[in-house]
Design brief:
The chain contains nine helices and no strands. It is mostly helical. The mean pLDDT is 83.
Length: 221
């Protein structure tokens, strides 16, 4: 069921993007702000307690490693993980660098998902706007439907694949370390979403209420 939900999150983003007009994408900033606040809260409330069994110094090293890894991935993805993409209309070949960087990001997202936490909800809420914006820009840039659907299909499979791989004994031995890395990734992505979701990086009342709502709902869950 969790694999199906992760796949559907990307499918929902794609189908919504197919019917969007260019001017309507700007309205995604409210939902992006909510998803960023929600993901940040879920990371702090659900994942941080899981890694406290590791010596404090090592936790910090792996979390910082996750932040650095995400910065490196965004060098190639141009910030697509938090809905910030620039795809030029003259491009028609499959965007391999974008695909590889997003695949690594999505693959790692799947590792900490388990029945013992609710991080699945945070990942799903994070994936829908990212999938929507990615799909829209692929469509806008003039990529063929085959390339667009292929990209989104492979992207949708990465997080379930990551969660499946996490069940292997070898990777389970490093579950805490990998979770700490994912925490760093989520911290960077969610805070960047919050920072970039407001025009000129200024928060208005609607964004403030949306962010607080994201925090509160995550806490209640």
């Amino acid at each position: 069921m969790k694999y199906l939900l992760l796949f559907l999150a990307v499918a929902i983003g794609y189908f919504i993007a197919s019917g969007f007009k260019i001017k309507e994408v700007k309205q995604m900033s409210i939902y992006l702000a909510f998803s960023g606040a929600f993901l940040l809260s879920m990371t702090i409330l659900e994942l941080l307690p899981e890694v406290f069994e590791m010596p404090t110094e090592r936790i910090g090293i792996f979390i910082m490693g996750g932040i650095l890894l995400q910065i490196c991935l965004e060098f190639f993805s141009k910030g697509a993980e938090h809905g910030h993409v620039h795809i030029h209309s003259e491009k028609r070949n499959f965007p391999w660098l974008l695909f590889i960087s997003l695949s690594i990001h999505a693959l790692l997202e799947g590792f900490p998902i388990s029945d013992e936490n609710n991080i699945l909800i945070g990942v799903i809420i994070h994936k829908i706007p990212v999938a929507l914006i990615l799909s829209f820009f692929f469509i806008k840039a003039g990529y063929s439907k085959v390339i667009t659907i292929t990209f989104m299909l492979l992207f949708a499979l990465m997080t379930p694949l990551g969660n499946w791989l996490s069940n292997f004994r070898l990777l389970q031995e490093y579950h805490t370390e990998i979770t700490a890395i994912v925490i760093g990734i989520f911290l960077h992505v969610s805070t960047t979403i919050l920072y970039e979701s407001s025009k000129d990086h200024k928060f208005n009342l609607a964004k403030l209420v949306t962010i607080v709502l994201g925090f509160v709902i995550a806490y209640i869950i």
